[in-house]
Amino acid sequence: GKMAAMRSVRRFCGVALFLSQLYVLSGRAGSLMTTKHSQPQSTFAKSLTSTSTNTPYFKASESTEIPPYVTKCPSNGLCSRLPPDCMTCNTNYSCIYGKPATFDCKVKPHVHCVDVNNHEQENFTINMTCQFCWQLPTADYVCTNSTNCMTVSCPRQRYNATCTVRDHIHCLGNRVFPKMLYCNWTGGYKWSTALALSITLGGFGADRFYLGQWREGLGKLFSFGGLGIWTLIDVLLIGVGYVGPADGSLYI
């Protein structure tokens, strides 16, 4: 009985020793595996760091792309003739309104221009009138039109317009600004045509029909031009522009 017990204990110890060795080996193998895996990870990390260090290079290559404003900037022309979008200027708000002022300017990147002696330059000066963009004369900016307001009304109606300064004009402040403008749109009616119809066929109401004023036209037609008096009055009213198109637009 004792021998059998001793054998069973030895077997148990042998199995326990075998299991412990197996566990140690598996641990080493695992550590080997992790070290093997860690090598590609480290190389991958290195590749990541290398690409991250190369990102400025990629950014630099992206920055060499031509900015959109360059298309507006004529190359190798006079710097002082460049559109305002092609330069950055030091704003001199201490200038006297309405008086000539000098501004120090610098060309934007990728813009090439020359001075009077045909030498390329970056820094230059510009002479312009000291005033904000919204104070410019109406000929110096372009505004959006409105087709839903009446022009022939008392008082005259206004509408909100968005105005943009013309490319060759320099001014202070925002180059795009809102402005309240008088309604000033046309429906395609000609003043000369209306006047000619009023003189020739005004007795039949042709001038009023042409302008879209059907009621007045029918009134003139059936009253034989108000016995001629209405016809003469309409010639005068259309001649001075008092009577206009029925839709409220202006003559061409």
UniProtKB/TrEMBL annotation:
Membrane-topology annotation of the record: Multi-pass membrane protein
Keyword annotations from UniProtKB, A to Z: Glycoprotein, Membrane, Signal, Transmembrane, Transmembrane helix
Membrane-spanning parts: 189-209, 221-243
GO cellular component: membrane
InterPro entries reported for this sequence: TM2 (IPR007829), TM2D1-3-like (IPR050932)
Subcellular location(s) per record: Membrane
Domain TM2 stretches: 188-235
Signal peptide: 1-27
Membership in a protein family: Belongs to the TM2 family.
Protein name per the record: TM2 domain-containing protein 3
